[in-house]
Amino acid sequence: MIGIFICLLVIALKPTPSFNYQPASIPILSHEGESVVQLSENKIAIIDTNINSGMRGQILVFEFDAKGKTFNFVGQYNYADYFRNPQNHGLPLPN
């Protein structure tokens, strides 16, 4: 009986594990309808979210050239077109 009591006492007084979880933060800079998102160490994307810009949904991707200390244009993508015309991108139409 004393052994069981000691085991219960040890279990009751055992400290609970503490978790220190911090999700990875992705820096996002915004300025009135435009956001800059870091994609990787040397790559950024500029996203136009302004409804009245005429380029809403446009994503421009740039890669940093350390030698020239400049950003070089890599490509562009329009995420809004996926929502407006999913059939053009091989996505099924919503029911």
Distance between the termini: 66 Å
C-alpha Rg, in Å?
Answer: 26 Å
Number of domains: 1
Beta strand %: 35-45%
* Strand order within the widest beta sheet: 1-2-3-4-5
- H and E order: HEEEEEH
Largest sheet: 5 strands, antiparallel
Mean pLDDT: 78
Written account of the structure:
It is a single chain. With 95 residues, the chain is of the alpha+beta class. The chain has one domain. It is 19% helix and 36% strand. The chain is built from 2 helices and 5 strands. It has helices at 2-13, 79-84; strands at residues 28-31, 34-40, 43-48, 58-65, 70-78. A 5-stranded antiparallel beta sheet has the order 1-2-3-4-5. The model has no long low-confidence stretch (mean pLDDT 78).
Write the layout of secondary structure elements.
Layout: H1 2-13, E1 28-31, E2 34-40, E3 43-48, E4 58-65, E5 70-78, H2 79-84
Main attributes?
95 residues, alpha+beta, five-stranded antiparallel beta sheet, elongated
Please summarize what this structure is.
With 95 residues, the chain is of the alpha+beta class. It has helices at residues 2-13, 79-84, and strands at residues 28-31, 34-40, 43-48, 58-65, 70-78.
